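Regression test attached.
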Amino acid sequence: MAGTDRTKHQDRVPGAPGPAVILVAPQLGENVGTAARAMVNFGLTDLRLVRPRDGWPNAYALTAASGALEHIGRVRLYDRTEDAIADLTRVYATTARRRDIVKPTVTPRAAMAETQAVEAAGGRVGILFGGERSGLNNDDVTLAQAVLTVPVNQAFASLNLAQAVVLVGYEYFQHTHNAQTDDDTGRGSAPMPQGGFAPAAEVLGFFEHLESELDAHNFLYPPEKRPAMVRNIRNLFQRAGLTLQEVRTLRGIVSALVRPPRKQRRGLPPEGDSG
Amino acid sequence: MAGTDRTKHQDRVPGAPGPAVILVAPQLGENVGTAARAMVNFGLTDLRLVRPRDGWPNAYALTAASGALEHIGRVRLYDRTEDAIADLTRVYATTARRRDIVKPTVTPRAAMAETQAVEAAGGRVGILFGGERSGLNNDDVTLAQAVLTVPVNQAFASLNLAQAVVLVGYEYFQHTHNAQTDDDTGRGSAPMPQGGFAPAAEVLGFFEHLESELDAHNFLYPPEKRPAMVRNIRNLFQRAGLTLQEVRTLRGIVSALVRPPRKQRRGLPPEGDSG
């Protein structure tokens, strides 16, 4: 199947960089390289690494990428997943199986249909992939609005990282090159909120604001239960797919609730003063 | 992405073995093994080899297959491609690029849609894949009714055999497991939470609780904007599809936030008293 025609231009959608591929704590450099190669096969060029175990740049990755890294340009490095997704407006967490997290679970096809809609509205999408051994941890999954799972034979499920990236890239390419490829489904894509989804940094800012107030009001207690409580609350809001306006409304709600009430008898409408 | 649940049955369509994967003059045993593994991920179990360079059985293939060959059973060996496809009613030849052959060229998606139709009519489908170096020769391509080409970035096209097999298997699985996978409706595809969604009365109770506190804290102001603000806030939470436990958590959050804080310096962990 190999074959590169260097006389042709990079085959990308004008103005759409495609979803960012974010590898969280990848282990072998070689696997980062094959993931990069899988990306570029479908025109994806935004690769971000969170704490790569074997460091970056990496000679094994360079070899395995077979020239793909030249197409990718600058690979971005991060210590925290939160920072890697800060500019993204919709994030998917790739998991091999459904988890006990109440979050929409979508196939690569549905996710890339949504991605096209998000990009058309000016947003940016990213896909989180976990390390080879154990995948994403629950905190990373919580950072995503939806879970991406490849439907596979449950009696033998052994897709590797590059294969998962191939499927995502393939679906993205299909959705963005509709005119050039046949498409037997014709099914519509997900509804997009007006103005698109909020950037992840804004959503995280709301979470931290809420959690800081909940700490101050003794809600996230006892300490050993705090992480799970925080995850549950974050997941609940992530499921909604918040817009920037909604994030601002929620921050306003938290700020309003922690202020002393205007009236002693709650439930009555406020009087005419808005100060 | 790895994970096999051996308690589950092989996930196949009753009566449909899926398309046969026919590797013509493959070179490295390892690549035969990874192709087998890619097949079984999507429930395909009919593997046929035409003149494998390194012979069969092959120890490298066995290792690379990671147990997939147990699911495949007997791998059939042939000297000639003609014999390998003798029982098939429709054959696709996989090529990296269009050739000067007047033949329908289809994507994996279209080919697997056709495959499903062929199987429904009692026929059998096979996909020819060429060797690592040069692919299928023209005589082999001529044996097929159609050419299968993966749409890729023409500026960097380096899909390997296993990745091409993954795409074919994925599309077959999508077409034959429609009922079990979500579709492009995207955000509507949230899984049912354990215990189900909260009764509407509970959700409304939370809304009234929240809105009464927001009134008391002068947030839903001015009065002429109150109805729209209430609708926006309710919609945001409704999109999440709340469970009863989450409704209780949200009520707890509202109650906690309107209480005076325990500590003047917010953000510090609370002390040992939980009262």
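Expected vs. actual: identical. The beta strands of chain A are 20-24, 47-50, 76-78, 90-94, 105-106, 125-129, 146-148.
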